[in-house]
Amino acid sequence: MSALITRRGFAxxxxxxxxAPLAACGSDDxxxxxxxxxxxxxxxxxxxxxxxxxxxxxxxxxxxxxxEVDVRYFDSAEAAGLLLEExxxxxxxxxxxxxxxxxxxxxxxxxxxxxxxxxLERVPEAYRASDGTWxxxxxxxxxxxxxxxxxxxxxxxxxxxxxxxxEWDGRVAIAPLNGSFQAFVTALRVTGGDxxxxxxxxxxxxxxxxxxxxxxxxxxASGELExxxxxxxxxxxxxxxxxxxxxxxxxxxxxxxxxDPGGLVNVSGIGALGDSAExxxxxxxLDYLLATDAQTYFAETTFEYPLIEGVAGPAxxxxxxxxxxxxxxxxxxxxxxxxxxxxxxxxLA
Length: 349
Description:
This protein is α/β, with parallel strands linked by helices. It has helices at about 5-15, 35-40, 50-65, 75-85, 100-110, 115-120, 180-190, 195-205, 215-220, 235-240, 245-250, 280-290, 290-300, 335-345, and strands at about 45, 70-75, 95, 135-145, 170-175, 225-230, 250-255, 265-270, 305. It has 2 domains: about 5-140 and about 265-320, 3-Layer(aba) Sandwich (D-Maltodextrin-Binding Protein, domain 2), CATH 3.40.190.10; about 140-265 and about 340-345, Periplasmic binding protein-like II (D-Maltodextrin-Binding Protein, domain 2, 3-Layer(aba) Sandwich). Strands 1, 2, 3, 4, 5, 6, 7, 8 and 9 form a 9-stranded mixed sheet that branches.
């Protein structure tokens, strides 16, 4: 997704953020006699997740159930902005986001409905909305990826706040237009306050920039970069693409000290627009995504943490219960508009 599109998504979000909550989106408000016809239609999914990652799983769902899924792929911020702009005119039944912040922004506008309690209870409370309007599908930890040939273990910082020190100037790459980075900066604001977060962003002015996490990992592997801030699973994806075990790929991962915002454990998650959760096909897809087969797919194919009990996490990674990110409520990551403004004011986007 281009930088231009990412900015457009937040421009849409900003333009509608002050509007009164809109009427329900994705509604199946049809007479009883037409209900079955409505449920014969494809499920319309706005996806903020990459097509290469999610489409194979959706194809498996269609093969297993016969239910078609009409997927519209966006950046998560762009999808959130579009939903806010469309309101009750949106064709979307479901919004799949790569982070909790974009889901929270849509929920705050009153566009998401409370999901089935049984579905919500499959996922630990920390990884779903407190009002039940969205639920996490996978977990992912923020980490520092680095080249062990250039940075020793003794040099690694305990806190992400330390990266504005002179010794790290220009050495740690970031992806300021990427949703996961923006969610992390929002976590900086929640834990340290806006003034401290703004100072951190200004302190990263000389950081190398990439559009996404993947190119950062590739840059460290090639020797172009010394280090970068990414989500944990990208090193496993890039090693798999290179056809080598992660231990032979080159880069290593550094987990920040317990409680540090640099170790934010975020989610990819999903919410239903308007009364769409009452649609049998929509309910079937939600059930499928939080069942064993799909959760195993995430662990084995995208190297993310499954969120339901009984499914093993990605091989070679710390258990989800061992990760010690900042003690924040993911629902508090919904003010992405201010975060993006701060990133832009710091000259990083």
